[in-house]
């Protein structure tokens, strides 16, 4: 038996946040398992095509599996850095299933937000890591998806209130809870200002543009114009030690 670990991410075109987050997960895994080869793959074809135009290549899942097969790997442990059991996770599983017969075993870890304890761990990591004043609400911007797993974001908001993080609100840029729902909730809770931070592994396009830019349609601008002055903390989830620990625990669960 020759075992290896495959870390699968959505990807990003932002090099700095890639290093701080995706590479941070890879480094954490490699340090914890020095005798086990670690491979990497991404699932976003759009992002990988954009990097190809810069002369950079990142393997997709089939390419990574082909390399692992050529290297004589027989048993694969897969750590997805995706947050949810959503479309990208499903896409990854389909690629793994298509090549499963080439290996003795392929075992896949849970995504980051797979259960109640995961939600609470990530909430506490962000709440502890981002300082807020007494009159500031901490608003976490998730991506959002039409996939049914989107309900995790509303559940996470509920968990925040249930665990005493009354100042934390969770929403999404592409689904629900949306910006309007967040504004209503922040106002109803009596907060006068807002701190925005991403609920995403990498602080890429959504974090820098949809959340934190000075463009008219950014969350920062819209909160401010609605009478809730906003500032942004652009930090990916991979920059929190508790989150790296959580990824490692998900991997450990299948080893």
Would you mind describing this structure in some detail?
Keywords: Cobalt, Metal-binding. This is Sirohydrochlorin cobaltochelatase. InterPro entries: Anaerobic_Co-chelatase. Co(2+) binds at residues 143, 174, 206. With 255 residues, the protein is an alpha/beta fold. It has 2 domains: 3-113 and 240-252, Rossmann fold; 116-237, Rossmann fold (3-Layer(aba) Sandwich), CATH 3.40.50. Helix content is 44%, strand content 17%. The protein is built from 10 helices and 8 strands. The chain has helices at 15-32, 45-53, 61-70, 87-98, 116-129, 151-162, 179-188, 205-211, 219-225, 241-252; strands at residues 3-9, 38-42, 75-80, 105-108, 136-142, 168-172, 193-198, 230-232. The chain has a 4-stranded parallel sheet, sandwiched between helices. Helix 6 (151-162) links the parallel strand 5 and strand 6 (168-172). Helix 1 crosses helix 10 and helix 5 packs antiparallel against helix 10 (241-252).
